[in-house]
Amino acid sequence: MPVRNYCAMLTAAWEAFSNMRYMGLLLALVATSAFAQDKPIDPVDFLVDWQSEIGQRFRIHDITIYGATPEVATGVLDKQYVTLHEPWQDMNDMRFILRNCAALLPSDTCKMTITATVAKDFIGKLQLVDVDFEIPK
Q: Which of 36, 54, 65, 101 has the fewest CB atoms within 10 Å, measured from its CB?
């Protein structure tokens, strides 16, 4: 009898492990598909339609970063101001941002492409989070 219970317990444990493996694979696919959402968009279209894109990731070209702190930065996109907020994708990129883009006035040194998730700040304004900066070479 104890051997039979032991085998049943091992079988149940294996089935649970197999199910967890499949769940892990499913989660990996969902995470991968989230990265596939990075899509280019025209700056004017983005500025007009951002509320319908909350939660989506976009690749945004020609945004100039300035006034950067470790928590927040301002971006200029087609002469409009956009708030960028932590979390940052790569803290090593922040070294460049803090050294070169902390000034109170925009500079061409800080004109770059970013990939970010569209969000709303606490007063309902556009905010970009989970930002990945493509540092100019």
A: 36
